[in-house]
Amino acid sequence: MATPVLSNMPHHVAIVMDGNGRWAGKRFLPRIAGHKQGVTALRRCVKACVARGIGVLTVFAFSSENWNRPPEEVSGLIDLLARAVTSEVADLQQNGVRLHFVGDRQRLSAAMQTAFSSAEDITASNTGLVLNICFNYGGRWDIAQAAQKVADSGQAITELALDRALALAHVPDPDLFIRTGGELRISNFLLWQAAYAELHFTDKLWPEFDEGALDEAIAVFRSRERRFGQTSAQLAIQVPQHSSQPMKAV
Ligand code: IPE
Ligand code: IPE
Ligand code: MG
Fold first, then answer.
1. Do 236 and 146 contact (CB within 8 A), yes or no?
2. In the chain, where the domains are located
């Protein structure tokens, strides 16, 4: 048997930040207290990714389906994000982070849309970590909006055309897909882009996810053999490539 080739560091890490409500419930706190602690965990995770030279971090902050939660939780989450966008920008700027909001903005207030655009503009020339915050995002929404764009342009519906029209066209596909909170499902996150991501599920609730948990996920990722449809024997004789992703279909 060929010696497994250790994968490189993941370039793009995607995270379903789940478990805020349970974290709060265990402490007899309101769910929104868990979401607040979730913002702290995200701040910590961003810094840890910067320190480890990760290229892209994409996080799931609010799904298309999360509108179905009780109205006070939905408005609490929106307020929390609106406040975080303003208060965190200076820190992100200092860390060289380039911010993108990914998702359908049409349902958001004009003030929120302006706050998103202004945070993106302020950080647009940063060259460090790319941070994608998926808010009112769903993988199915993304594929449908991309298909509509391609159809409107009159192009043929090819993988490449769709790929370029997707909301995450500015970054390569995720290498490592982490879900905290113990659920073993994707919940409509990155349906297209996670085709060859390595999946890592942890029981840790998102507010508890710290540097050690990130390092563990990275270590698990590095122990995996990514074959992209090939055999182990083929990989053993290949010259290592700079990119950890296979060539995209044209
Ligand atoms: C994830 O935590 C945050 C959002 C979905 C906005 P949850 O709020 O889903 O926490 P649990 O799963 O109920 O513990
Ligand atoms: C997924 O978590 C969405 C986010 C983390 C933003 P959910 O808590 O909404 O997922 P389900 O409902 O358990 O699948
Ligand atoms: Mg949840």
1. no
2. 12-138+174-236
Q: How far is the CA of 16 from the centre of ligand 1 (A)?
A: 9
CA-nearest residue for atom 3, ligand 1, is 18
Q: What is the pTM of this model?
A: 0.94
| Pairing verdict, β 98-102 and 130-137 | parallel
Q: Is 19 in the pocket of ligand 1 (CB under 6 A)?
A: yes
Q: For the purposes of burial, counting CB atoms within 10 Å of the CB of 22, is it exposed (0-12), middle (13-18) or buried (19 or more)? A: middle
Cα 249 to Cα 222: distance, rounded to the nearest angstrom = 25
175 is annotated as an active-site residue: no
Q: Which ligand is nearest to the CA of 206?
A: 1
The token duo for 215 is: 């390092």
Q: CATH for 12-138+174-236?
A: 3.40.1180.10
Question: What are 188-224's pLDDT values in tens digits?
Answer: 999 999 999 999 999 999 999 999 999 999 999 999 9
Which residues line the pocket of ligand 2, CB cutoff 6 A? 16-18, 60-63, 66, 183, 185, 187
Nearest partner of 240 among 250, 225, 229, judged by Cα: 225
Is residue 105 within 6 Å of ligand 1 at its C-beta? no
